[in-house]
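Known limitations

Files may contain more than one protein. Parsers should not assume a single record per file. Below, a two-record file is shown to illustrate correct handling: read the sequence, read the token line, then continue until end of file.
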Amino acid sequence: MEFRFLRTGKISSISYKDTTARVEFDDTPGEISKPLQVLTDHTNKEKNYSMPSLKEDVVCIFLPGSNEGAGFILGSYSTEKNLPKDSGKMKYIIFPDGTKVKYNFESHLLEVDCVGDIDIKGAKNVNISSKNIVITTDKLTINSKATSIIGTSLNIDAITTAKNITAEEVGVTKLTTPKGDVDLHKHKDAENRPTTVPE
């Protein structure tokens, strides 16, 4: 058989641990390659991991003199059957379960849409900065040994609320404000003197 430097085919099986896959070649249906290494960006101190999926169209490269036994999977390509539904000046990753990470170069919009949980961890600080932050959720829970809210105003807009909100009702022993403290049962003025609860 004439040696072919480049060949196309479809992924027939995958070894996720070995980062290899076998390919059924387009020009010889039924012929399956030996395990081929899937090329990636980095494998040393910086590491990348991304494997193709079964039946995915790929391009393979083979080493001269290897009798087409030693080679690599260069990557995938689009055909008329699997052209991207969302295209343009953008870059995105869509996972099999529907999770998506997408950036639009024209609108400058970064989207992260996960069908499961999202964990963000920082060994020291996690900083979020923006002109406007909107959180929409059915339930918001903050677990913290100490909570500090710094700002010029605080607005609580709820469908139902108590006539007077005490520190106990919000689950802390004391609320500190620029105009005084609110402890479990009492209000305090700027001079830290107990006051009566407003009627």
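...continuing to the second record:
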Amino acid sequence: MSFFLNLFFRCISVKKDNLLVLCSFVIFLSYFISDHFYELFDKTEVYKTWFLYDIVTLVLIAFFHFLLRTKASPGVFYVYLGLSINTILFGLMHLDIVIFENKEQWILWDIYTAGVNIADFTMIVALITDRDILGLIKLKNQLQINTKKALN
């Protein structure tokens, strides 16, 4: 939905951020493919598959970001962050379940469940609103300023 909304806003010139539209499209495509072709993959390797999907998605978004040479809007920043969190969690779950063959639920599984859902929801809201909804960009900028002051 965020892709169609951003495309509509771009077409009627409400927003002029092409990177946001491309980012929304790449996210849409990634989630569409991973949801609809889920059965094609070995179910024991699902976390590795999702890990690889998120890596490819991050690379595609970074490629478009490089091509357009524009500053990342808040929506794009949150997508980078959300996909990075998801990628780490998918990798950890693959290690835990497939590599280490753990079958008993523990805190990582709860962190995974909450983390992926929160990251996905935050990405969707950020893509629709294109705002710093959690204040993370403001926090990042403040930390950069404080770090520069401390080093000088």
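Parsers that stop after the first record will miss the second one. For reference, the second record is described as follows. The mean pLDDT is 90.
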